[in-house]
Design goal:
It is built from four helices and six strands; from the N terminus they run E-E-H-E-E-H-E-H-E-H. It has 104 residues and is of the alpha/beta class. Strands 1-3-5-6 form a four-stranded parallel sheet. A two-stranded parallel ribbon has the order 2-4. Helix 1 packs parallel to helix 2. The longest helix is centred in the middle third of the chain and has 17 residues. It is globular and about 35 Å long.
């Protein structure tokens, strides 16, 4: 299981989103094993629609591997972005790392 935390409070500009996407892609296995991943958003205040698109692609990759992806520690603002875009139905969103790890 991989747990990823973000260093930037604002995952908004194109450069940051590209770097996050590249780092996630490089860190995950490509050998066909199920991907089990927790994304910890504690401390993240803002995310862009571009990042949402990258997360949707990540969810597909995880699904295709037979794995699971959980998002946790979403601030009210970030949680509102997922809810407003109806992406809270696509992603498994849980309260904290402990709950996320228990689901994986």
């Amino acid at each position: 299981m991989h747990i990823v935390s973000f260093r930037d409070r604002l995952l908004f500009d194109d450069r940051t989103v590209r770097e996050v996407s590249e780092q996630l892609g490089a860190a995950l296995p490509n050998d066909g094993t199920p991907i089990r991943l927790v994304l910890d958003f504690s401390g993240v205040d803002l995310i862009s629609s571009s990042l949402l698109g990258k997360l949707i692609l990540l969810q597909r990759r995880v699904d295709n591997s037979g794995g699971k992806l959980r998002l946790c520690e979403l601030t009210p603002t970030v949680q509102s972005v997922f809810r407003t875009s109806n992406l809270d139905r696509l992603f498994g969103i849980v309260r904290d790392r402990h709950a996320a790890a228990a689901e994986l």
